[in-house]
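Worked problem 6 (solution included).
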Amino acid sequence: MATIRKLDNQTINSIAAGEVVERPASVAKELIDNALDAGASIIRLSLEGGGIKMLEVEDDGCGMSAADAALSLESHATSKLTTVDDLLRIETMGFRGEALASIAAVSRLELRTRLIGSDSGSRLLVEGGKLVSSESAGMKEGTTVTVRDLFFNTPARFKFLKTDRT
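Solution. The predicted structure is:
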């Protein structure tokens, strides 16, 4: 019989990502929900390979500071809740703080964002849940999330998506 042991954080995040990110459509839904919660009036969705090769959501919402952008890629990081009582008054699409971290855990994700009123924005690159780079970036106000190679590091999930239309 095998010994019981705790999983490492990367494995935990990959498993948890499967609950939020089932297919490209669920990625699009989560990112569009984030854009709506950010007050976006214009949201642009772009796809390549049915969203497996590339899926991008660009919005003109409020954007994020560099610190908030980095924190948004961590599990359970949210601007919607501060106490358990806030769960009774949720008026947003998302609130759990899992979407970006889950998507980043199973893809190569680029987050570009500029807070309204800021002089510059931020660009963060994440591969398989690991931050690869973070830098200042010139861009318009709002947020753009580009997801590439969805499920590149989870072969079982990738195999499940037999076609671009799945």
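Discussion: The longest helix spans residues 24-37.
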